[in-house]
Design goal:
single chain; mainly beta; 8-stranded antiparallel beta sheet; 6 helices
Length: about 650
């Protein structure tokens, strides 16, 4: 801070008025001995910027102290990126047992007995009436009993409904009985030759895929009368697209042991089969005694992949502990006698959440993030009472689909919020009042532990609430029918950003040595004078534009850097904080008293600085344009100097 002011230099300045043309060595003893009090003004210094004054500027590439675009000093530490994924394997159900009874059927017996005046030897008249057979409604099973893989049930805790694409083929066939006829026709209809229906449980949703049947109320197949020819089956296509498990009876649906269980009935309405004799041949003997009707249900694929589910997801996402090293920092802020009360340190998180399938609105889970932070120095926690800084517990950290920018700070930030012009980009400022405990003492490292990403719920297992369910979709299968798992990927970058702006509890004790003066003061030095210094007083005005109150004391040191007790230095100054454009000024006097014996060992001063916050400037960051300046420097020396003027250049 202070340039060494040589008493000899002051005296030499006073003697500089001697006429240089006069040869002092011409028969005259050139030794001059001056005794008494010498005073003179010195002038002023240039601004010593804060980086030099407090040794903040470092060439060490590992230093984490930097400046922002405005020149404000800040500690900036970046951690290693975190990548974590939640995967839900594709859910499949077997179709083998879906229609385990195959469908519906009817036997048509004693056909000839229903023909009035039947005579096998005569031709069938063209105007013969159809032979009508009526059948009551009947049921067949629809069954699913699929145990889900552990990899699924570890995450999926309940399923409310499923969407799927299960193509079903209904085949209606008329087959011959005991006779060997190759021709024949019947008309299948409902009562009174109207429509007939196949009614699935209300929980099952259908879509028609052929023009000769329609779907009513989402679960009932409706058919107009169908002409059926012997040996020529009629096919109808439809798709099972969903199952609402909540509409199933108790005990069915998603079971507590992790199965999708359905055991319901499909109902075929009462039907009429009208057999037209003339289509079996020319004579009555061509008409069979009996025939059969078959309505079979078949699924194309043996395994049915679910398109999606509405479910409760409760994944366990344990992220490994993260450690980021605090690199080199200046002694001014990292020393053992430093208690930092940093005004507003910030932990910045950038969390990107995405998945591998398109999602519809409100179908993406919102995650929450929790973690604990510890600061360690020499392997021990520096936090008060060892209590960790916890984030995401009192103030939840919500992670939505897209990019989540989260700043965890001690004090709310201005203008930090969502920008509606940015799609799926969110900004959130979370207040954690004790986050500054992490760097109250500069640690060697900061450890982030107990990192947990989870999906919040309002209900609990066995009693889930409506808003606990979300609808998710699985990736489309590839050309080989293979589907990738549904994957939620969490990418997190994090950094610690600490502006060097301080709160009221700051106390920094810092010492810096100004040395290399021994040759000017020692009688054994290389100087061409001898100094008899009884007392020296240096006065100046200390101009401060640093936003810290500074208390200065000075201690003499010898050539080995040890403090000296046989030299008296009086300096006790309190310097008020300032800032550029609003600097403060304080008068300072440094008084030094010493013997020549002590001066022979004297090498400089150790300046002891105590920095504290100023009430009016709390939160103002240290800036590279701040600094100190000395004005109106003057010196007074009591003592003497002996020099040989003939040796002065």
């Amino acid at each position: 801070m202070l340039k060494p002011l040589s008493a000899a230099a002051i005296i030499l300045f006073a003697c500089s008025c001697v006429d240089e043309a006069y040869d002092l060595s011409n028969g005259i003893d050139g030794t001059v001995d001056i005794q008494g009090s010498i005073s003179l003004p010195i002038g002023s210094t240039e601004l010593m910027k804060i980086g030099e004054f407090l040794k903040l500027d470092q060439d060490d590439p590992s230093s984490v102290l930097t400046t922002d675009s405005d020149g404000n000093y800040l500690i900036s530490v970046t951690g290693e990126p975190i990548v974590q994924a939640v995967e839900i394997p594709q859910i499949e159900i077997s179709s083998d047992e879906l229609f385990r009874n195959g469908g519906f059927g009817a036997n048509i017996e004693n056909i000839k007995d229903k023909i009035p005046g039947f005579d096998p030897s005569i031709p069938i008249p063209d105007d013969i009436d159809p032979i009508l057979f009526s059948f009551d409604g009947q049921d067949t099973d629809i069954s699913i009993n699929e145990e889900l893989a552990t990899e699924v049930t570890d995450i999926v805790k309940d399923i409310r409904d499923v969407s799927l694409e299960a193509p079903v083929q209904l085949t209606i066939s008329l087959f011959e009985g005991s006779a060997g006829s190759s021709d024949g026709k019947a008309v299948l209809s409902g009562s009174d030759e109207g429509e007939f229906t196949i009614d699935f449980p209300e929980a099952i949703t259908l879509e028609g895929r052929s023009g000769n049947c329609t779907v009513r109320d989402g679960h009932t197949l409706v058919f107009d009368p169908v002409d059926i020819y012997l040996g020529e089956p009629v096919e109808f296509g439809f798709v099972i697209t969903g199952i609402d498990l909540e509409k199933l009876p108790e005990g069915q649906g998603f079971t507590t042991d992790g199965r999708i269980y359905v055991d319901e009935l499909i109902n075929l309405s009462s039907i009429e089969l009208s057999i037209e004799p003339k289509f079996f041949g020319d004579d009555f003997e061509d008409i069979p005694d009996d025939a059969g009707l078959d309505l079979s249900l078949n699924v194309d694929d043996s395994r049915i992949s679910l398109r999606g589910v509405t479910a409760v997801l409760d994944p366990t996402v344990d992220i490994e502990d993260q450690t980021f090293e605090i690199g080199e920092l200046p002694e001014f802020i990292s020393g053992d006698n430093v208690t930092l009360d940093l005004y507003n340190p910030m932990l910045n998180l950038c969390v990107k959440l995405d998945n591998n399938v398109p999602t519809v609105e409100n179908s993406f889970p919102e995650f929450r993030l929790e973690a604990s932070l510890d600061a360690r120095k020499d392997g021990n926690s520096t936090l008060p009472d060892g209590s960790l800084v916890r984030i995401g517990y009192d103030n939840p950290l919500s992670i939505r689909k897209g990019t989540n920018n989260i700043c965890i700070s001690r004090i709310p930030l201005d203008n930090y919020g969502d920008d509606p012009s940015q799609n799926e980009v969110y900004w959130n400022n979370i207040i954690v009042e004790n986050i500054n405990d992490l760097i109250r003492i500069i640690p060697d490292e900061i450890v982030m532990s107990d990192i947990n990403a989870y999906i919040p719920h309002t209900g609990e297992n066995g009693n889930w609430k409506a808003d606990d369910y979300i609808t998710i979709a699985f990736p489309e299968p590839d050309s080989y029918g293979t589907s990738d798992p549904l994957r939620y990927e969490i990418n997190m970058d994090y950094s610690l950003e600490v502006p060097l702006a301080f709160g009221p509890d700051l106390e920094i004790k810092y010492s810096t040595d100004f040395n290399g003066w021994n040759s000017n003061f020692s009688s054994d030095g290389s100087s061409d004078y001898k100094l008899d210094l009884k007392e020296a007083a240096i006065r100046f005005d200390f101009i401060n534009s640093i936003p810290l109150d500074l208390s200065l004391t000075a201690t003499p040191i010898d050539v080995d850097g040890n403090e000296m007790s046989d030299i008296t230095v009086e300096m006790d100054s309190n310097l008020p904080a300032g800032e550029p454009g609003n600097e403060t000024s304080a008068p300072i006097t440094i008084t030094l008293t010493a013997t020549q014996e002590a001066l022979d060992r004297f090498d400089g001063l150790r300046l002891n600085i105590v920095a504290t916050s100023s009430a009016g400037l709390e939160g103002v960051a240290l800036n590279e344009n701040q600094g100190v300046k000395l004005e109106k420097i003057s010196a007074t020396i009591q003592g003497g100097i002996q020099m040989n003027l003939t040796q002065q250049n």
